[in-house]
Amino acid sequence: MPKITPPLTDTEIKKSKPKEKQYKLSDGAGLCLIIPTKGKKYFRFDYSYNGKRKSISFGTYPETSLKKSRDRRTEAKELIKEGIDPAQQRKIDKNIETFEMVYSKWLELAKGDWEEVTYKKAYETLKNNTLLIKDKEMKKVTRLDILKIIEVMQKREVHVLADRILGYFDRIWKYAVTYNICEHNIIADIDRRNALKQTVKKHFPAITNEEDIKILMNDIKEYKNYKASDISTIYAFLLAPYVFLRPVNLRTLEWLEIDFKKGYIEIPVVKMKTRKSFVIPMSNQVIKILNDIKPYSQHISQYVFPSPSDSKRPISENTLNMVLKRMGYKDKMVPHGFRSMFSTIAHEKINEHGHHSDVIELCLAHEEKNKVKGAYNRESKMKHYDERKELMKWWADWLDAI
User: Fold this and answer.
1) Are 80 and 47 in contact, with CB atoms under 8 Å apart?
2) Are residues 80 and 103 in the same domain?
3) How many CA atoms lie within 13 A of 253 on its CB side?
4) What CATH number is given to the structural domain containing 43?
């Protein structure tokens, strides 16, 4: 009777150690694990084709699992039955564009239009959530594959991320169709309303009570007394309540975006979430804070708030958040919360400052929610500028008064 080789186990593989000479552990049917004297263990498939002994590697362990190697052995044996040499087929397959190859090309193309942090988020989201299809030929990825990915993400309750990755998929398939990698955008056939669970939008933690705002403002002004060496963080923290910019726009604020003569800050279109340039009038308090930090940063960096470790970069996205946590505001306030603070108080006190809700929303760089109305309402970045200037003055004075 022919000798039957017992199959390998993961425990046996993990326990295998290098020896003076390279050796192998057989799984049967041509599959074995090679343990070299140096370097990683790897799976090898030995087979005969047209009377010749041949071998191909299935990948290193543990990156390639025992199960995956067995699946590849099955695929290779099927090719041999069909009269195809697995080694030759692999050379042909190298010209196939997998999903990972295509999304990498798309990311590289999009990189020039994105902030570095946006690029990293997209890369990490795709890398960590597309293992199911990453090695699959782009043309062979199906709608069911995509829905499975969304289903898995929703079981993890990362609903916002699931919505975001579906947006990435749509853009990746449009890229693939444009460059003739595949013929059809399968994402266009997916009904997002049915594919994505409706979730309650979670708001950023924010302090909006007048008495609590008073305490927060005092804490902000006291911060410099026990962290005097961290100039960028001190002044970014001082400025945040008065301008309530989105955190990325605050930390990446550049000197060329500040016009002291005209009295406003202008964030260029490439930095704006709305893809429209944004002008925000400066109150006297804002001008003073910026003039105070000028001697420290203007001569060493393009950024108003350069990183202490590298003046060519702005402070990190977590800097202000960590300060708030250290000051006892964990789960109570985040940098984005300054926007909610302004919005809440400004809407509550419309009778006091006398400006309409539209002016408040313009100060926040919010887009028109009514898409039809927004399409016909494309006034310039200076829309209601005088009213916004008055409101920004009122807000700064109100903060100081409390």
Assistant:
1) yes
2) no
3) 28
4) 3.30.160.390
What DSSP string runs through 44-107?
EEEEEETTEEEEEEEEETTTS-HHHHHHHHHHHHHHHHTT--HHHHHHHHTTS-BHHHHHHHHH
> Based on the domain organization, do 54 and 116 belong to the same domain?
no
Taking the model in full, what pTM does it have?
A: 0.52
Asked whether 382 and 279 are in contact (CB, 8 A), the reply is yes
Token pair for 57: 């590697």
Contact 29, 18 (CB under 8 A): no
Co-location of 360 and 269 in the same domain: yes
Cβ distance 287 to 393 under 8 Å? no
Residue 36 near residue 18 (C-beta atoms within 8 A): yes
Highest mean pLDDT range out of 200-204, 225-229, 340-344? 340-344
Rounded to whole angstroms, the Cα distance separating 113 from 107 reads 10
Query: pLDDT tens, 220-238?
Result: 888 766 554 588 999 999 9
What is the C-alpha separation between 388 and 281, in angstroms, rounded? Answer: 7
